[in-house]
Specification:
Layout: H1 7-15, H2 20-46, H3 52-77, H4 94-106, E1 113-116, E2 120-123
Antiparallel strand pairs: 1-2
Helix pairs in contact: 1-2, 2-3
């Protein structure tokens, strides 16, 4: 069962990845180790080394971990979605800060919020708008 002990250290290394691509690569390595472990667990059942009843919980947990890491890899490889633009730089003049902030806020297109210049953000109910 040596292959079953390889995924956790690989995942730990992925968690401290130096970039999004590094995280995706190292998480994918951990996923490959889990797929190998799942294969060995199935082999144990086919070879009747242990009963399927004794191993089925391990196989199910391994399947769940494979799905979780698989989704993590695909999410990490996907292009990040941005809802809000980068905020403007702040100046010392108070009125220009307020005016530029309101200009910046008026450019935001986020269906979950609307801008009311006199009151700020108005949040809609989730059922009325899709999340950003």
């Amino acid at each position: 069962m040596r292959s079953g002990t390889a995924a956790p250290p690989n995942y730990d290394e992925a968690r401290v990845g130096e970039s999004r691509a590094d995280f995706a690569h190292k998480t994918n390595v951990a996923l490959k180790e889990l797929v190998e472990t799942r294969g060995w667990l199935r082999f144990i059942i086919l070879a009747q080394l242990l009963s399927a009843r004794r191993i089925e919980a391990l196989v199910e947990e391994c399947d769940q971990l494979c799905r979780i890491l698989g989704k993590s890899v695909s999410t990490a490889k996907a292009k990040p979605k941005r809802c809000l633009p980068t905020p403007p730089s702040i100046t010392n003049d108070q009125s220009s800060i307020l005016n530029s902030s309101m200009d910046w806020l008026s450019q935001i297109h986020c269906p979950q919020f609307s801008i009311n210049p006199s009151y700020g953000f108005d949040r809609h109910r989730r059922s009325e708008a899709a999340p950003c």
